[in-house]
């Protein structure tokens, strides 16, 4: 890269970019656990988009890469 070129910054996560929107309720297919999406964020180390979500049973918060969250292990459920 020459001195005149500006490095390209990765696109930051936007709530509208994700399959699951903030407030959406999800069920984990394998465990049957229920979760609520809090927001779509970026992992600091690599700026990869990731979901922050809350367990509706324990109220623990979790972070999972967007690609994993949207690969079929979670399904959207009605309130």
Describe this structure as you would to a colleague.
- The chain is mainly beta.
- The chain contains one helix and five strands.
- Strands 4-3-2-1-5 form a five-stranded antiparallel beta sheet.
- Strand 3 and strand 4 form a beta hairpin.
- It starts with 24 loop residues before the first strand and ends with a strand.
- The mean pLDDT is 90.
Task: Give a brief rundown of this model.
By secondary structure, the protein is mainly β. Helices cover 5% and strands 37% of the residues. The protein has a 5-stranded antiparallel sheet with strand order 4-3-2-1-5.
Based on the model shown, name its key terms.
mainly beta, 5 strands, 79 residues
Order of helices and strands: EEEEHE
Estimate the helix proportion, in percent: under 10%
Intertermini distance? 51 Å
Shape: elongated
Report the major sheet. Answer: 5 strands, antiparallel
Structural class, by secondary structure, is mainly beta
Give the tally of β-strands. 5
Unreliable runs: none
Strand content: 35-45%
Mean pLDDT, all residues: 90
Count of alpha and pi helical runs:
1
Alpha carbon gyration radius: 15 Å
* Lateral arrangement of strands in the main beta sheet: 4-3-2-1-5
